[in-house]
Amino acid sequence: MLLSTTHTIPGKQIVKHLGLVRGNTIRARHIGRDIMAILRNIVGGEISDYTKMMGESREQAIDRMVEEAEKQGANAVVGMQFATSMVMQGASEFLAYGTAVVVE
């Protein structure tokens, strides 16, 4: 599966647009991570537990988007973007979306 944040893929021609595809995940914070984040905020530096959680969320959202694109018969997704939003106190959604296409 080819993924592109642009609306074209160099060297490929889009022969069919299949429509919007998306994948998302919602993750909640963990009280233990929050305590470590508060301590890290005092001394400064990266909050590696949250960095890891966001990376895992991003990969899961991409995997789900690709799965949806494959179900539609796509071999590429163009115009791919990410979005995040808080859905409740301590829980956030991570969304990957784009346009499923067939390229040659």
Per DSSP, what share of the residues sits in E-state strands of 2 or more residues? 35-45%
Mean pLDDT: 89
Domain count: 1
By DSSP (H or I, 4+ residues per run), the number of helices equals: 2
Count of individual beta strands:
4
**For the CA atoms, what is the radius of gyration?**
17 Å
- The CATH homologous superfamily corresponds to Hypothetical protein apc22750. Chain B
How much helix is in the residues?
25-40%
Enumerate the strands of the largest sheet in spatial order, edge to edge or round the barrel: 1-3-4-2
Shape: elongated
Output the structural class.
alpha+beta
Report the order of strands and helices. Answer: EEHHEE
CATH architecture: 2-Layer Sandwich
Detail the poorly predicted runs. Answer: none
CATH topology: Translation Initiation Factor IF3
Distance between the termini: 12 Å
The major pleated sheet works out as: 4 strands, mixed
Can you tell me the CATH class?
Alpha Beta
Oligomer: single chain
What's the short story on this structure?
The chain is of the alpha+beta class and 104 residues long. 36% of the residues lie in helices and 41% in strands. The radius of gyration is 17 Å and the shape is elongated.
Describe the structure.
The mean pLDDT is 89. The chain has one domain: Translation Initiation Factor IF3 (2-Layer Sandwich). It contains 2 helices and 4 strands; from the N terminus they run ββααββ. A 4-stranded mixed sheet has the order 1-3-4-2. A hairpin with a 2-residue loop joins strand 3 and strand 4. The protein has 104 residues and is of the alpha+beta class.
